[in-house]
Structure formats: structure tokens, C-alpha cells
Amino acid sequence: MIKAKKSLGQNFLIDKNIIDRIINILSITNNKICDISPESFSPRPKIQSSLIHFTPKKNFAKIKDPLNLEKITRIFFSHRRKMLKKPFNQIFNGNYDLLNKLNIGLNLRPQNLDFDTYYKLTMEYEKL
From CA 94, how far away is CA 6, in angstroms rounded? Predict the structure, then answer.
């Protein structure tokens, strides 16, 4: 009898330009498997494709409402080219103790923060 292995994620074939944007936004460089040329398909598409692998997380952040994470990231990324000071003050009213607790510098940009920092910011927001 053959046992099926437990699923360790999913592979997706997506337009290369979209994959490159996902990689830049999410910093998932080691999830991209390869680029696939249009010559590999019949009929030949007009776009270049990439194969990407997504693995489900095992440990999830303890966020009460996912809409809060959406709100935090929306506010921070609406000022994407700016430093963190303005969106941080907008949400947390300049709580510098929180900055020290999470070891965040206001001279960073939103794209410089990792996922875990956004999860922690969301959990702190939910405590307000």
C-alpha cells in the first residue's frame, strides 16, 4: 500500500512580471522555482511565465481580526516612499515606547519591515 505524502504547499504558474512584483513586495526570493519561456507551451503565449511555490505557515500570529492587519498595512503602504514616522504617528500617536519594544526605527520605509513586525504592530493596535 502506498501512503500519500502530506501536502507541503502549492506550485503556481503565473506571469513572470506578476511573480517579480510578488517577490519584491513579499520578499519571498527563495520560493521562485524557475522562469519558463513561451516556447515551452503550445500555443505559444505572448508572456514569459514563472513557477513559484507557496508553503503554508505553521505558526500564525495571534491577530484577533485580519481587517486590522489590512488597515495597518494599508496605512503604512499608502506612504510607501516616505519614512515610517507619519503613518506610525497616525496610528500610535507617537508611542516611542512601542518603537523601542519592537526595535523599529522611524527612518525606515514600510517596505523595510518584515512580516513579523507588521503582525506585532497589528497586535499592539488591537490593544488600543
Answer: 46
**Looking at the whole model, is its pTM more than 0.90?**
no
Query: Is-contact 68 119, C-beta < 8 A?
Result: no
Residue with the three cell numbers 523599529: 104
Query: Count of CB atoms within 10 A of residue 18's CB?
Result: 13
Helices (H), the chain: 16-26, 66-77, 85-92, 96-102, 115-127
Q: What percent of the chain has pLDDT over 70?
A: 85
Q: CA-to-CA distance for 89 and 118, rounded, in angstroms?
A: 15
Half-sphere exposure of 99 (CA within 13 A, CB side): 16
